[in-house]
Design goal:
single chain; about 120 residues; mainly alpha; de novo design (two linked rop proteins); 4 helices
Amino acid sequence: MTDSQQVGERLLEYGARIIKVVECLPHTVVGRRIGDQLLRSGLSVGANYEEAQAGESRDDFVHKPQIALKELRESNYRLRLLIKAKTLPPDRLRDILDESNQLRAMLSKAVATTKNKAK
């Protein structure tokens, strides 16, 4: 399995974990609002990464991972917010937040490498 495929699999697993977190959120106005936003950004990461693998142009190949990274940062923020607000127990979110941080570092490196190759 290539590095790209491994990242893709981790992002797929991350998306599945985001779904589980959102399903556990309380059915309050705040829980629904944050849940909707977390679901959108958390699932968008993998989708944009997958689209980048079949980029139609060099610009597309560079741009899609940047979007994936942006969505991952947004998801990371919402996970931290859920911890800070004690919406879910911190122990419930610690592992996915750690994975989010690892994926963010990996995508940051991939974006930098792709930008350098494009120059």
